[in-house]
Amino acid sequence: MQKKSWQTRTARLAAGTLAAALALGAFTGCGEKKGEGDKALTKVTVNEVTHSVFYAPQYAAINLGFFEEEGIDIDLSVGQGTDKVMTGVLSGSIDVGFGGPEAAIYIYNEGKENYSQIFAQLTKRDGSFLVGREKDDNFSWSKLKGTTLLPGRKGGVPYMTLGHVLRQNGLIPGTDLTLDDSIQFSAMAGAFTGGNGDYVALFEPTASMLEKEGRGYIVASIGEESGEIPYTAYFASKDFIEKNPDLVQRFTNAVYKGQQWVQSHSAKEVAEAIAPSFADTDVELLTTVVQHYKDIDAWSTDPVMERESFERLQDVMTEAGELKQKADYDNLVNNTFAEAAKANG
């Protein structure tokens, strides 16, 4: 098999990035501070599922001042799991959640009155890479037969997307190979290097860090194989959106600016823009990882979540046995703000 373009680049990532990925911020709620020219900024607490270069358009929007232009001060924290992010949204301890849309689907199907609505999409395919113990320039998915793979949390979009890829390559999870989902997301790389599993699904920069250290090798892009799916999005409680429509609109405007900027700039320029969010990683190393994601067309060009894409996600969830009843797209996805951002962009 021809080696993919992202496999040909040498990733050199500092170990300090992992520490940054685990850093947690305080939940403080909406408030105000002064921006440039004493302009009052509204504080919005955002809890992201993890801290990854995969979310480059978000960090570009923060660091280039797009949120500040919209009168918003972002207080960013890390939840380490979409389930934990959703808990914060529903409890009111955070304003906006950022993670897999599957959590919003589960909550909606529970019949909660103040369910969480998705209002902006950021990524459009799986951002994880399959890492093996040996370098394999001629990898094929059939090589996973009889192996043990560390896939992440059962029920999460990464787990389900991987299962979809395995099935479309003729492999039945649990029959043709073992999926060990007992390991927490943040501990997967350590478990793999400690001897657990034959393969592991990892996000950047962790995947390239293992490759640089000679403790693992990227053999495939899961997102490139799976095709487009609404992978990561912003959501907030229905009550929050109804009470703060102008704030949600301005937030979405900033996200759209970040998406457009990343699309129109080189990997190096993007790396330079997001560097403040990854202080322990030099720009050259960030450039490598950004290029990986550009190569697989990971980022949405606008924040609209299309009906077809949403239904494809629900099909993947149903196939995985995690969804018994499909959620209503028109109730769960609120594209009002995304459409307005595009129209006025």
From TrEMBL:
It holds the Pfam family NMT1_2. GO terms for cellular component: periplasmic space. It comes from the Bacteria. The keyword Signal applies. Residues 1-28 form the signal peptide. It is found in: Periplasm. Keywords: Signal. Gene3D superfamilies: Periplasmic binding protein-like II. Belongs to the bacterial solute-binding protein SsuA/TauA family. This is ABC transporter substrate-binding protein.
